[in-house]
Amino acid sequence: MTTLSTDAVTQFAVLDALLAGTYESGMTVGFALEHGDFGVGCCDRLGGEVVVVDGEAFECTVDGPPSRMADSAILPFVDIAPLAETEATDVGGLDLAGFTAAVENRLVSRNLFHAVRFDGVLARVRIRATPRQHHPLPPLDEVTRTQVETDLVERRGTLVGFWAPAIYQGIAVAGLHLHFLADDRLAGGHVLELTAGAGELRVAAYARFHLHLPVDDLFLRTELTHDRDHRIVAVEGGVGAR
Predict the structure, then answer these.
(1) How big is the CA angle at 37 (ends 11 and 202), to the nearest 5 degrees?
(2) How far apart are the C-alpha atoms of 42 and 236, rounded to whole Å?
(3) Which of 241, 224, 235 is nearest to 49 (CA)?
(4) β-strand 188-212 against 3-12: which pairing, if any?
(5) HSE of 151 in the Cβ direction (CA atoms, 13 Å)?
(6) Is residue 114 a contact partner of residue 33, using CB atoms and an 8 Å limit?
(7) Within 172-224, where are the H helices?
(8) Is 164 helix (H, G, I), strand (E, B) or coil?
(9) Does pLDDT of 75 surpass 90?
(10) What is the mean pLDDT of residues 102-127?
């Protein structure tokens, strides 16, 4: 049974802002952790991927293994929530499509946000991180052309992510958006492909969504229009909307 949490998913910025190259400011890690203990995001100027698990935030960069983030570090995009206690389901032997189906079989409603956590062995997982950008800031789809991809095999760790309703595409990533953090804290990043070994899947639903928008000058003077869904699917590596 999937738990319907009374808490909220809190998000800073919108995905369409990253696609427009509008990511000069952000929410601090310390402020984000006041709103939850479980989440995903990106580092300042898209300089890596962020995993928040068990109340700790880790940055996964191209420069070395994941590391704990300072409370003052900036997150230009983040989704975070208190992870509700919910029943675990044993899953294994699933590729990304099968894993997505297992998650969607546990949704309370396709109109609600859901936190998704898997703890166990990844028979294979392909992850990415992007290098830190400099002014003038390029759009996200250009940034991902220089992403660093890593294939891991037989790694124990945690998948952390959210499933978002289709109506929020462009605000969030519609569908399933996952990051990975190895238990030994030596690898992590945005998930492009996976094959899950044995492990436990937990899914919690949220009917409350709190959005914080940037107020820096670049964001305020950049009119965002949601007109190219294909760019979101491309930069997410197929993990997003289907």
Answers:
(1) 95
(2) 13
(3) 235
(4) parallel
(5) 3
(6) no
(7) 217-221
(8) strand
(9) yes
(10) 98
Q: Collapse the DSSP code of 166 into the 3-class scheme (helix H, G, I; strand E, B; otherwise coil) and give the result.
A: helix
Cβ pair 16, 137 in contact under 8 A: no
The Cα diameter of the chain in Å comes to 48
Number of other residues whose CB lies within 10 A of the CB of residue 127: 28
Cα three-residue angle 17-68-91, rounded to 5 degrees: 80
Strand partners, 160: 117, 179
Average pLDDT, rounded, for the chain = 95
Q: In this model, does residue 240 exceed pLDDT 60?
A: no
Whether omega before 136 lies within 30 degrees of 0, making that bond cis, reads yes
Task: Give the span between the Cα atoms of 61 and 188, in whole angstroms.
Answer: 8
Alpha helix positions (H), 150-224: 217-221
Using an 8 Å Cβ cutoff, are 226 and 170 in contact? yes
- Residue 50 · residue 42 · CB < 8 Å: yes
Query: Do 18 and 9 meet the contact criterion of CB atoms below 8 Å apart?
Result: no
pTM of the model: 0.94
pLDDT at 242: 34
CA of residue 21 relative to chain centroid, distance? 18
